[in-house]
Design a protein that fits this description.
The chain is α/β, with parallel strands linked by helices. It has 12 helices and 19 strands. The strands form 5 sheets. Strands 3, 4, 5, 8, 9, 18 and 19 form a 7-stranded mixed β-sheet that branches. About 0% of the residues have low confidence.
Length: about 350
Amino acid sequence: MRAAVLEGRRQFVVKEVPVPELPDGWVRIRVHAAGICGSDIHLYEGAHPGLRNPFGRVLGHEIAGVVTEINGKTRRFQIGDRVSLNPMISCGRCGYCRTGRFYLCEELAHIGVVYPGGFAEYTAAPIDNIYPLPETVDFASAALLDALAVAVHAVNLAQVRPWGDAVIVGDGPVGLCLLNALLSHGVRRVWVVGTLPHNLEVAKSLGAERVVNVREDPRWEEGGEGDGADWKFDYAFESVGGSHQTLRSALRHLRKRGTLVAVGIFSGDQTIPGYELVWNEIRVIGSNSFGYHRERGEFELALQLMADAPERYRRIVTHILPLQQIQEAFEMLLRRREGSRAIKVVLDPTLHEADPSGRMSG
């Protein structure tokens, strides 16, 4: 089969590789959509803090496709079913797994890192990790389910109340999924703070009360005084990561007893003012992946949100490209600050020619 192998820093090679093995209890999936996640970009640049040597691997963990082979007995799925998948494979025995926090398992392995991922014609996954796609959810949108489940988990961890209000620091796919999750939770006032004009336009169209471009508007960093608006919030969600001091700026905009949730992947240490943290009784939470909430899987909760309002997620997918254009797809995302309008870029290995516009329906 054809697969894109990360051979070195910022170097993918599309070549023939063996089809992934199919252990007992696993299914093979013909990939129709594989989203490029922020963590994939870290790996592409050789800068992921948790995996310093990603080379020689088939990445891609945001996957949707069609079941082509089943090794084992199951009544849940059959050949030809449209599915998405949870890419996390845990031991199923430890205390974390037994309490629904499988994402914290010490033996955790990811499809798209340890196991061959979705940047290929085929991938494989345990039967228990795959979910049927409703007819209302197309493959490209389904590639956002992982990001949406991450957002659902963060909102659940924060114990968000509908009468509260929230600000999201970060205007990428996870930030926009956080916006959708908060609005579906009944939160009426949500702001999005970012740096990318097109992303902020999409955030506004999705229902953000206000968007703030910190490159053009200094009031976010200055505390937001003087325009009559309320720049204080009950909840702040950081979805940027990297090395900028975004936690510090988010904390500045929390009310007393507010909640700060860190969702982004940081490449350096963050500094937050200890006095303000204590004096204002700020609650700081790290949010990692997704698991269960009140005995319901958060991936399933995300799937239900998407099925109920699929058009809200189609707006986030800006580009669908064939596998052979994977290098262009990653570089497009790295050029966002230079004017690229890419938000969520999805690779479709079933495509063989790109649309001249760089955007295809799928």
